Design the sequence.
């Protein structure tokens, strides 16, 4: 009879193997491109996984790939469900060219964040902090960006920390 420790070993091995596969994929993307597509990553990683590996939800796999990509300084394109039917999309996996390019954005969103946060006098921003939602709204108005609120919030939080500007979470 297997003890609980012995029963967990295959699961631990599968988890470590999955972690190594994701790490190798992100490293390969890091050398050639500045971004990771969650859809493309999932298709490649799922082809490598063994049928005996534990089931893994698409969302969990996306989160694992995204976390490691961000840790390695890569942009993440959350594009699951945007591709064509599986038979057409899988044909593109073996191409040497990337199946997609990193999204390009014309307006300088980072520069606009600097301008918005830099326009606030430090003593005033410490007494009455700017709200994150107000800065996001102003940023969308000035740049017309289509980036997600979470992406903009991350950018604004980093810039605010560097500039010493305090922001409130609620609007």
Sequence:
């Amino acid at each position: 009879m297997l003890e609980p420790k012995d029963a967990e070993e295959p699961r631990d091995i599968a988890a470590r193997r999955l972690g190594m596969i994701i790490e190798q994929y992100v490293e390969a993307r890091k050398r050639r491109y500045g971004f990771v597509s969650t859809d493309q990553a999932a298709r490649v990683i799922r082809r490598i996984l063994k049928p005996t590996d534990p089931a893994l939800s698409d969302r969990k796999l996306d989160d694992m790939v995204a976390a490691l990509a961000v840790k390695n300084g890569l942009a993440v394109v959350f594009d699951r469900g945007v591709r064509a039917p599986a038979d057409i999309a899988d044909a593109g996996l073996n191409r040497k060219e990337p199946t997609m390019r990193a999204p390009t954005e014309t307006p300088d969103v980072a520069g606009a964040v600097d301008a918005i946060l830099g326009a606030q006098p430090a003593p005033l921003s410490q007494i009455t902090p700017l709200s994150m939602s107000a800065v996001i709204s102003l940023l969308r108005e000035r740049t017309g960006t289509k980036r997600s609120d979470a992406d903009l919030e991350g950018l604004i939080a980093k810039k605010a920390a560097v500039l010493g500007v305090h922001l409130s979470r609620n609007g």
